[in-house]
Specification:
55% helix; alpha/beta; 107 residues; two-stranded parallel sheet; single chain; 7 helices
Length: 107
């Protein structure tokens, strides 16, 4: 199963000490580079994410689509949606309603 995750769910779970929930539910989670960049804003988060073997960072290929989505969403959500489509992800985890609605529009 391919899972792509946006920034906020990871940050929120890290803050309450339950990031392991994602691993228990899905095994592996993929994040786009922009999400990793956003997570790296706080030093302690960057170190934790870098040391987790079950979270991998992937590069989004279609930057044109990302740029288009950036008109409606933040960069992390835009890359997460485009990456999910590119790798044919089974699930995308986005906490904001607007992001979920747009992800549904993109299939």
């Amino acid at each position: 199963m391919l899972i792509v995750c946006d920034t906020s769910p990871i940050t929120n779970l890290l803050q309450i000490g339950h990031l392991d929930v994602l691993e228990k539910l899905f095994g592996q989670v993929i994040i786009p580079e922009k999400v990793f960049e956003e997570l790296s804003f706080y030093e302690h988060q960057k170190e934790k994410i870098e040391n987790l073997e079950w979270i991998s960072v992937k590069t989004v290929q279609n930057q044109k689509k990302v740029k288009l989505l950036n008109e409606r969403l933040d960069s992390g959500e835009a890359e997460a949606i485009v990456l999910a489509k590119e790798i044919n992800a089974d699930i995308i985890i986005i906490d904001e309603k607007k992001g979920r609605v747009i992800a549904e529009e993109y299939g």
